[in-house]
Design goal:
It is a single chain. This protein has 404 residues and is an alpha/beta fold. The protein contains 13 helices and 21 strands. Strands 12-11-8-13-16-17-19-20 form an eight-stranded mixed β-sheet, sandwiched between helices. Helix 1 (17-29) crosses helix 8 (168-179) and helix 3 packs across helix 5 (105-112). The relative contact order is 0.09. Ligand PMT binds at residues 194, 210-214, 252, 271-275, 277, 302-306, 321-324, 336, 348, 356-358.
């Protein structure tokens, strides 16, 4: 995120108000300017001082507070906001928002603001299921507000059911999505992630250390940029990404089948998966016994999916591969660029600290026909955002070239 974005965080009265402290802290760490507005009821659950300390900004509660730097406070805050989040959102604020009521600092600022709004309901299941609340939420949806749905769980009243506020990371994900420029609107993007597993027998398989983090970050960045995204991945511990079509496969052969089926109507394909190059030549139906003396394992090549994609690509399609090596990274990346006929190779060296498998960072070199560009170590999220921006440029260039 280059330019500081302003988030207005509205907090209403409910036990989930404690999660707003974590949300504020996380947003601040990510570089957002956070301004908190609390209802009087919210101050019964968490103090303005806590939110002031975490946000670094004065917290507003009272509409008629004279000791404030803004002239007409609710209008100034409303104008400042890039995104307006209410977390937790009580049944009361949801009703006020639906009916346009403005009788305190939060509801007046909300009514005055023109930016995108994210509502995170949190309440007792009965209140949430009440047709009045549901109708109010539907009104907000129809007006373009984004609802981050409440989850099932143990509620403060002791009931178990729907009504727990979404976790801060889910709300942050929605905020980032709202604030990302929509450079891939109208585009369909296919991303592969994670490791494949090649079964030897019912209990054993060959695989590698890919966690899926790099590919998932790319899928999320493409979704945030407005693309329709299909994510094909091997087994991973990562949570599905909201509004991304999720297809789990196990083996390289399965990945090949799904990718080759999905690719023809995609504008962009990014292959971050660590696909096995070899698979056992035979699958043993029974567990292989340790009594045998022959310890060699016959293997056969898996389909080279990237190469097959390039052979069947449409004129407008942009293809991006990754290259992961332990030696001669750039020579190997250039060889893959030419042999696999792709537009761009993102090369990462497993031996470089902060790069490659499992961690949250990567160090990549972009290799294309135009040359090479080595980037500093960045978070996988930042690498993914940068890659998506580059792909948007490649798509524009390809569109222009094919239009002639
Ligand atoms: O998942 P993480 O833990 O975050 O780790 C990320 C990563 C290191 C796995 C990722 O950044 C990465 O480098 N992925 C590609 C790993 C790899 O398989 O590299 P390769 O050089 O062997 O393959 C080159 C390209 O061909 C890749 O785009 C690969 O998806 C593709 N390939 C490989 C074999 C095969 N049979 N079919 C393919 O399409």
């Amino acid at each position: 995120m280059n330019q500081k974005k302003h988030v207005i965080l509205g907090i209403t009265g409910g036990i989930a108000a404690y999660k707003a402290a974590q949300l504020t802290s996380n947003l601040k760490k990510k570089g957002y300017d956070v301004h908190v507005i609390m209802t009087a009821n919210a101050t019964q659950f968490i103090t303005p001082l806590t939110l002031e300390t975490l946000s670094g900004n004065r917290v507003s509660v009272d509409t008629f507070d004279r000791n404030f730097e803004y002239n007409v406070q609710h209008v100034s805050l409303a104008k400042l906001a890039d995104v307006f989040v209410i977390a937790p959102a009580s049944a009361n604020i949801i009703a006020k928002a639906a009916w346009g009521l403005a009788d305190d600092m939060l509801s007046t600022t909300l009514l005055a603001s023109r930016c995108e709004k994210i509502i995170c309901p949190a309440m007792n299941t009965g209140m949430l299921d009440n047709p009045a609340t549901q109708a109010n939420l539907q009104t907000l949806r129809q007006r373009g507000m984004r609802i981050v749905e409440a989850q099932e769980g143990l509620l403060a009243c002791g009931d178990v059911g729907r009504g727990r506020m979404a976790e801060p990371e889910e709300i942050e994900d929605e905020i980032e999505r709202v604030l990302t420029p929509k450079i891939l609107t109208g585009k369909k993007v296919l991303v592969s992630a994670g490791a494949t597993q090649e079964a030897l027998d019912p209990v054993r398989y060959l695989t590698n250390h890919s966690s899926g983090k790099m590919g998932y970050a790319i899928a999320r960045a493409a979704r945030n940029a407005g693309a329709q995204v299909v994510l094909v991945h091997g087994p991973t511990a990562l949570k599905p990404i909201r509004d991304v079509q999720d297809i789990q496969i196990v083996s390289a052969a399965e990945m090949a089948q799904v990718i080759l089926k999905e690719a023809p109507d995609c504008d962009l394909v990014i292959k971050a998966a660590a696909v096995a190059d070899y698979t056992p030549a035979r699958f043993s139906e029974q567990k292989i016994k340790k009594s045998g003396t022959d310890l060699s394992l016959p293997l056969q090549r898996t389909p080279d999916i990237l190469k097959l994609l390039a052979e069947n690509r449409t004129a407008r399609q942009v293809l991006v591969g990754f290259a992961m090596e332990t030696e001669d990274l750039l020579t190997q990346a250039q060889r893959k660029l030419h042999e696999k006929h792709v537009d761009l190779i993102v090369a990462n060296d497993l031996r470089q600290p902060g790069a490659g498998f499992q961690g949250d960072t990567n160090c990549v070199t972009y290799v294309s026909k135009q040359g090479m560009e080595t980037m500093p170590m960045m978070s996988k999220t930042a690498v993914a955002e940068d890659l998506v921006r580059r792909c948007a440029v490649l798509l524009k260039e390809r569109e222009a070239a094919t239009a002639c």
